[in-house]
Amino acid sequence: MSYNHDQEQSHDEKGRESIQKRVKELLERELPVGWSCLVDGEQITLQVAIEGEIHERSIPLQSLYKQVEDSPDNRRELLYRYIQHIMAAVKGATDTPTLAGNEQHVYPVLRHSSFFDHPKAKTLLTHPHTAETKIAYALDREDGYVLLDEKMLQEAEWSKEQLHDLAMDNLEASPYTIKADQVGEHVLYFLNSQDGYAASRILIPSILHEFEGKKKGKLLGTAIPHQDVMIIGDLANDKGAQLLAQVTHHFASKGDVPICPLPFIYQQGELETYLVVSPNQKG
C-alpha cells in the first residue's frame, strides 16, 4: 500500500515538473524584452525593470496543477489559457493607462484609511467616506484595474467632481444580486456582483435607505469586509450586532482585497463603526 502511494506521489511530482518546464518555455517565448521568469515549485515569479525600479509579480501554480491533474486530456488547452492570463497581466503592467475614451470603465472603490499612508498611495485620488474608510477610483481593465492618481486626472483634463460623478453613474448602472440568510431573529443580506465592485454599493444611498425603511429589527447594520461583498444586517437586538461583527471579521480575513474589519450601524443616512468587546476582554 505504501509502495503504491509512493509511486503515485512520484508520478505527481514528475507531472508537475513537466508543467513547470513547459510554462517556462512558453513564457520565455512570449515575454517582452526585459522580462524574466523564474519557476519555483509552487509559483512563477516575473521580473522587469521599469524606469530603474525592479518590479516583481508572483503567480501561483497550484490551480494549474490541479486543473491539469483533474483533466489531463485538456493539458495543452489549460497551459495555453494559463499563459494567456499571465500575458494579459504583463500587458497591463507595461501599458500606460489613460482615462480618455474610458469614461464607461471608471468605478469608485473603498479602502481602509490606513491604505493611503503608504508612500506609493500618496498621489492617489481620494474622496471622504467614513473615519475608517476612504473612496478611491479605479480604471477597470481586462486584466484587473488601476487606481487613479492626480497625473491621470490632469492628462484627461477632468475635474474631481466629473470623475466622481462618472464613477457613481457607472456603479449605479451595473447589476448586482442580493442573497438573504436568516440567522435566528436576524437576517443577513449578502450583496454580490460580477463587476468586482460589490462593496462599492455602500456608496449608493438608495440601497441602505430602502433596507432601513423595511427593517423589522432594532438595528440596521452593514459591512464591507472586502471588495467582493457588501453585507447588510436586519438585526433584532445587540446580539445581532455581535453576529454581524463576527461575520465581518471572518470575511475580512478571507478576501483578496480587504477593506474594513469593523461593521457599521446605519441610521438616517449616517454610518458609524462599532467594536464588540467580549466579556473576557474587559479589564
Structural description of this entry:
The protein has 283 residues and is of the alpha+beta class. The protein has three domains: 2-94, no CATH class; 106-173, no CATH class; 177-273, no CATH class. The chain is built from seven helices and 13 strands. It has helices spanning 2-30, 62-70, 75-94, 150-156, 160-173, 205-214, 238-254, and strands at residues 36-40, 43-50, 53-60, 106-112, 126-128, 133-141, 144-147, 177-183, 186-192, 219-223, 230-235, 264-267, 270-273. The strands form three sheets. Strands 8-9-11-10-12-13 form a six-stranded antiparallel beta sheet, with helices on both faces. Strands 4, 5, 6 and 7 form a four-stranded antiparallel beta sheet that branches. A three-stranded antiparallel beta sheet has the order 1-2-3. Helix 2 runs antiparallel to helix 3. It is globular and about 60 Å long. The relative contact order is 0.08. InterPro entries: DUF1444. It holds the Pfam family DUF1444.
Question: Average pLDDT, to the nearest integer?
Answer: 88
Quaternary status of these chains?
Answer: single chain
Low confidence ranges? none
Shape: globular
Fraction of residues in helix: 25-40%
The figure for the number of domains is 3
- Straight-line N-to-C gap: 56 Å
Write out the strand line-up for the largest beta sheet, numbering strands in chain order. 8-9-11-10-12-13
Radius of gyration: 23 Å
- Main beta-sheet strand count, sense and barrel state: 6 strands, antiparallel
